[in-house]
Every structure is written in structure tokens, then in C-alpha cells.
Design goal:
heterodimer, A: 138 residues, mainly alpha, Serine Threonine Protein Phosphatase 5, Tetratricopeptide repeat, globular, B: 124 residues, 3 helices, rod-shaped
């Protein structure tokens, strides 16, 4: 009986991990098939997970908005999710945020200084691409 | 009891395997996005460098044109005045000079046959 309790806890953790990862896997499949826009309930679930702190899902959502997988290309929505992930320490999101600041959108003005800051943060996290971009901007 | 003890690491291992299997595809997506961002960044960078280069060239050309124009204007003012009254005075002055030069030329130069002062005519 003393064994049953930790086993159940471990099982619960494992199930949660598998569930979250399978949700991501499922979302990735929809993303690749270009059918993510048709699954509104899946998008709502992904948004909940991303808000809760899952950086991979936030990155996936941002990429979906950036590449027009959820309708039209929406760089402002992409910025929102990249920013969320970047603030939680996601290096790829930092790089993408720098790219958005360098490129500029309808609502986000081009800001080379901020772009450099994000590229520097991403480069410090070990991204070679960010280091290359930073070198070009110096 | 022993089978149950084994179940915990097996379950965790399975969960980790599932995580790793998904992590590969999300890492692929991340890699794709990084490559896209780098390529797009380089394109925008080159475009902006080219535009900046063209702007500098245009500005330099305009500066040279402006400088040449102002030099020409300065030369013109040195040759003659710009405002109308000064122009009139200038023209009048030039006319006076020309007429006086003509008078002098008339007196100095050899007179024509009709202007020739015939000494015999008075004697007659």
C-alpha cells in the first residue's frame, strides 16, 4: 500500500507529460498538413497551454501565425506569442523577435536597437544564426 | 511487488521517449524558422544597404550639381548685375562706352570719301 501512492503519482505525471506532448505532436501534424485553422478547439487548447507556460506550443502558435497557417499572415499575433516565449527564456523566440523588430510590421516600427538586443540575447543562449545577424549589424 | 517497482521507471522512460519523439519535430520546426529568419534578414539587410548606397550617391550628385550651379551664378554676377535697374545702368554704361569708342574711332580712323575734307573746294 505504501508503494501504490508514489506509483500513482509517477503514473499521473507520465500521463500528463504524454498528454501534453501528444497534444504538441497532434498540433504539429495539423500544422504540417495546413489544417490547423480548421480545428478551432485545438487552437484554443494550444493557446491555453501556451499561456500556462509551454514555450514549444507558444513557438508553434507564433510560427503558425507568421506563416499564415491560421488564415492570413499575422505578424502582430506572431509577435505576441514569440514575446511570451522569449520572456520565459526561449532562445529561438528571442531570435524571431529580433527578426520582427528588424523587419517591422504594420504596428511594430523598425527598431534596430531592440533587434540587436534580442539577437544578442539569443546569441548568448548559443544560437549561431543570431550571432551571425548581430555581426552583420555591428 | 518487484514487478510494480519496475513499472515506475518503465512508465517514466516511455513518457520521456514520447517527449523526445515529439521534441525532434518541434526542433525541426525551430531549425526551419531560424533558417528562414536568417535568410530573410540577409535579404532585407542587402536591400537596405543597396538603398542607402543609392541615396548617398544621389545626395553626392545633387551636392555637386548645386555647387556647380552656384559657381556659375557667381560667375554671372561677376560679369553683370542681376536686378533690372542695375542691368539698365550697365547696358547704358556699355552703350556710352561703345558710342564714345565709335566717336573716337570716327575721328581717328580714315574718313570715307563723303567725309573727306577737300581743301580745293574752299579755294574754289
Amino acid at each position: 500500500m505504501t508503494f501504490l501512492k508514489p506509483f500513482l503519482v509517477t503514473l499521473l505525471i507520465a500521463i500528463t507529460l504524454i498528454a501534453v506532448e501528444s497534444a504538441l505532436e497532434y498540433a504539429l501534424k495539423l500544422y504540417e498538413d495546413n489544417t490547423l485553422a480548421q480545428h478551432r478547439e485545438a487552437i484554443a487548447l494550444l493557446q491555453e497551454e501556451a499561456e500556462a507556460g509551454n514555450n514549444s506550443i507558444a513557438f508553434l502558435l507564433a510560427s503558425a501565425y507568421k506563416n499564415g497557417k491560421l488564415g492570413t499572415v499575422d505578424l502582430d499575433a506572431a509577435y505576441y506569442w514569440y514575446h511570451k516565449a522569449a520572456m520565459r527564456g526561449d532562445p529561438d523566440a528571442m531570435l524571431m523577435l529580433g527578426w520582427i523588430y528588424y523587419k517591422g510590421t504594420d504596428n511594430i516600427a523598425v527598431n534596430i536597437k531592440t533587434a540587436k538586443t534580442w539577437f544578442a540575447k539569443a546569441a548568448a543562449s548559443g544560437l549561431d544564426e543570431a550571432a551571425e545577424m548581430l555581426e552583420l549589424l555591428q | 511487488m518487484k514487478t510494480s517497482t519496475l513499472l515506475i521507471p518503465v512508465t517514466l522512460l516511455l513518457a520521456l521517449l514520447a517527449t523526445e519523439a515529439t521534441a525532434l519535430s518541434i526542433s525541426e520546426l525551430r531549425l526551419q524558422e531560424r533558417h528562414f529568419a536568417l535568410a530573410d534578414f540577409k535579404t532585407i539587410y542587402k536591400q537596405r544597404q543597396y538603398l542607402q548606397h543609392r541615396l548617398i550617391k544621389k545626395q553626392r550628385r545633387q551636392r555637386i550639381k548645386h555647387m556647380t550651379h552656384s559657381t556659375l551664378c557667381n560667375n554671372k554676377t561677376q560679369r553683370g548685375p542681376k536686378n533690372q535697374t542695375a542691368k539698365n545702368d550697365f547696358i547704358h554704361g556699355m552703350h556710352n562706352i561703345n558710342s564714345s569708342q565709335n566717336d573716337t574711332a570716327a575721328t581717328v580712323s580714315k574718313p570715307g570719301r563723303h567725309q573727306f575734307n577737300n581743301p580745293w573746294a574752299t579755294k574754289r
